[in-house]
Amino acid sequence: MDANQTLGDLLLSPFLILYYLLQWLLDRILSPIPPAPHDKLKKPKIAVIGAGLTGVSAASHVVGHGFDCHIFEAGDESHLGGIWSQVNSTSGLQISSLMYRFQPSVKWSGGYPKRDEIVGEIRKVWERYGLRDKTSFNTKATNVYKDDQGRWIINDPSNGRFDGVIAAIGTCGDPKAPHIPGQEKFKGEIYHSSELDGKDVRGKRVLIIGGGASAVEALEFVDNSQAKETKVLARSEKWIIPRNAVIDSLLAFNIFGQETLFSWIPENLLRIFFYRDLADIAPPKGSSKGIFTETPMVNSRVFDLIREGKAQWYRGDIHGFEENGVLFNHRAQGVGKNGPGREKLEEGDVCILATGGKATRSKSAAA
Q1: How far apart are CA 179 and CA 323, in angstroms?
Q2: Where are the transmembrane segments (predicted)?
């Protein structure tokens, strides 16, 4: 971040000053002490599978408490940071950074940092705790098992023997791009939502297939790229909550992590004060889609774009591609997937598949 901009932000925002002070205190009080460069770490020795956010954080705590470890990462060094290293540069946090503290030493510059800052903080932790010499890149863990003495082996004994294993492989792997009937007929470009860096959609009609967090990020990309028009084609309604640290924190106070007898209160407040005239795209009242049944999307810009006429958000089913667009079955609120509706060709020049990533799987021969 530019030093002059940072100084200006601090002078204008006393809350930002307090946030910086809080982060400094958390680092001083809670961060484990990094080992000296030539410290000999003791047992137990831990194998960490994955050099993403969770893997780097776990390894920093292991060595910070005096124990040895080694990280195994399937990709090269460009994959340091896991899923965050592979998303678009415009992708950022969907929740307040106040609640996204994967390691006490992390210091965010603002409420909703973008990819480069997030990966940068992960790398700082990796460097600060001397994990560079304890990381093997291009080493995919394909076989995890125990020897006859109960020690763990990653792939083969040449990688060492370990007293414990931390599987930090995340939940999302490679991009998931389903084949849609008639896709080969479409005359426009088709991209996955994770591959938008460098793509030009200025002045074009864009169709976004999907209604989750990937679709919201794709919509932000399209808006920044000054597309002619954008249509989001979603299968179902999902909760969208504002980027507001106070509101997000209040919702996080639900310690049960699921629907309660009082869930209707925040749901109705969101419909009244946030959705307002767009209540039709919220999950219907009395449905099984309560706000705590799945992870809501956090974004304030989506509704602004719809109200400004720069985007439309439709609910329905994809029936297939045509040369100049997508056949889409528009469904009314509350009508289930593949239910009755009105089929219409939604025309577009570019289609973005906001269909997320493949779920990762872990296997071992643990006794």
Answers
A1: 16
A2: 7-26
Give me 247's structure tokens.
């509101």
Tokens representing 139 are: 């080493």
pLDDT digits (tens, 9 = 90+) for 214-262: 899 899 899 989 999 999 999 988 899 888 777 877 787 777 777 888 8
- What H or E segment, with its residue span, contains residue 352? strand 350-353
Please write the tens of the pLDDT for every residue from 115-145: 999 999 999 999 999 999 999 999 999 999 9
H runs (alpha helix) in 176-320 = 213-224, 245-252, 264-270, 301-307
| Domains of the chain, start order | 3-170 (3.50.50.60), 174-357 (3.50.50.60)
What does pTM read for this prediction? 0.82
Q: Which amino acid is at 366?
A: A
Q: Could you please report the per-residue DSSP string of 315-332?
A: EEEEEEEETTEEEEEE--
Whether the CB-CB separation of 141 and 155 falls below 8 Å is answered with yes
Residue 334's identity, in one-letter code, is G
CA–CA separation, 55 vs 71, rounded Å?
Answer: 8
Residue 195 makes CB contacts below 8 A (sequence gap 6+) with 88, 175
| Residues 307, 333: Cα–Cα separation, whole Å | 19
CA 51 to centroid of chain Cα atoms: 16
Print the SS3 string covering 199-210. CCCCCCEEEEEC
C-alpha 210/C-alpha 216 separation (Å) is 9
C-alpha radius of gyration, the chain, whole number? 23
